[in-house]
Amino acid sequence: EIGNEVYYTIEAQKGQTEIFEGIQTKTLGYNSSFLGPVMKLKKGQNVHIKLKNSLDEETTFHWHGLIIDGEADGGPHDVIQPGEEKEINFKVQQDRATLWFHPHPKGKTAKQVFEGLAGLIYIEDSKDDPFEYGENDFPLILQDRTFNNQKQLDYQFVQHPDGTMGESLLINGTLSPRLTVNNEKVRFRLLNGSNMRNYTIKLSNNQSFQQIASDGGLLNAPVELKELQLTPSERAEIVIDFSKFKKDEDIKLIMDDGTVLLPFQIKDKGKEVKNEIQEPLTPVTISNEEMQKQVSKEIVLFGMGHHVTINGKKFDMNRIDFTQKKGETEVWEIYNKPDMMGGMIHPFHIHGTQFKVISINGEEPPENLQGYKDTIALDPGDRAKIAVKFEEKGVFMYHCHILEHEDNGMMGQIKVE
Ligand code: C2O
Ligand code: CU
Ligand code: CU
User: Which GO molecular function annotation, any one, does this entry have (predicted)?
Assistant: First the structure.
């Protein structure tokens, strides 16, 4: 780190990980054998990243949720061949947020993420953070995987055109994890890093928790919740107040069907705890006025399996589907058109921007969807209006974040000029 310049090397590599005791599972990772490091960036920094591909196949490095120019965004055009390197440079422009990075090569994204390529990015700002990494601030990357008889991740073996679901739940790459927490407020940064599974999470004692941030950063105010849905690629920062619970109480983070994600053990911190949740202050990058604009782009999500389309078309690397002016807000209407089978939920994601949800089916969105988002989940039949602004130029992808849908062509390109 020199002044405001920071340098990183991120290497996609092959490795072996002991997920099951005594067994080596072949995995992929960034700078490690499985998953990746938490990259901590600060607003205002000039970041220089050397990207290295040490895999046997081509890959790209995509910065999901980051405001970045199209050239550095790591979409399917930015392929790095095995053994090759590339450098990207960008300035961190956005406020505190939990983002992530993952590969995006055409038709191979789902497989590479499934095998372990995913890492978190924390954007920090100058405000004091009352939570401390590893002490009362923990990342929770939720992923489901299926292993074959040899306990290997054989993507071909489980691949499904509507998205791969696994019977084993991993958190941060670990099976059946437990976590010891202090009897104080603890922040969890959740990422749904699964290919297609939706999670609705809750506490086993049915107590509430607070959501303080969504994809793009802090909400205007903490939102009290008993349940929270996360579709693929969505993030949420939640705060659980463990001082409310008895020390020997058996508390778990579970899914709505009762599946256990994470059992907690509460320990006495032994000193006074005073981690007040910081006063959220969502920066206004899209004004209320801009949110009143007429719809100028319509997106229709349709189909299942191999037949998924956006606006009736499949992804074509050589076709630009939309254009938009840099710095200008437009209102997009996203419609999840049901099919004869009813259809399915599609998490719709846009690269290189954080947007605001104006309405869902004509109604004001729930409070925890009123902050900045880069992914919005639509049930079949849902119509959402979102206000979208790009701060950087270039070609950006928008797509369904069920990774197999994306690989099957449920993706389009917008050129920002
Ligand atoms: Cu997670 Cu195309 O993105
Ligand atoms: Cu993305
Ligand atoms: Cu989809």
Answer: oxidoreductase activity
Answer yes or no: is 347 within a domain: yes
Asked, for residue 222, whether it belongs to a domain, the answer is yes
ipTM above threshold 0.85: yes
Both tokens of 143, joined, read 């992923």
102 lines ligand 1 (CB under 6 A): yes
The pTM assigned to this predicted structure is 0.96
The ligand with the least distance to the CA atom of 103 is: 1
- In terms of residue numbers, what domain contains 314? 290-416
Residue 383 phi/psi, 5° resolution? -125, 125
Verify whether ligand 1 is closer than 6 Å to residue 408 (CB atom): no
CA–CA dist 287, 187 (Å, integer) = 29
pLDDT digits (tens, 9 = 90+) for 231-246: 999 999 999 999 999 8
Ligand 1, atom 1, lies closest to the CA of 64
**Is residue 273 domain-resident?**
no
Q: How far is the CA of 61 from the centre of ligand 2 (A)?
A: 10
Q: Verify whether ligand 1 is closer than 6 Å to residue 185 (CB atom).
A: no
Residues 80 and 172 in one domain: no
What is the domain count for the chain?
3
- Give pLDDT tens digits for 68-78: 999 999 999 99
- Residue 294 and residue 215 in one domain: no
Q: How far is CA 259 from each of CA 164, 199, 236, 347, rounded to the nearest angstrom?
A: 18, 10, 20, 22
Whether residue 62 is predicted with pLDDT greater than 80 in this model: the reply is yes
Which atom number of ligand 1 is nearest to the Cα of residue 351?
Answer: 2
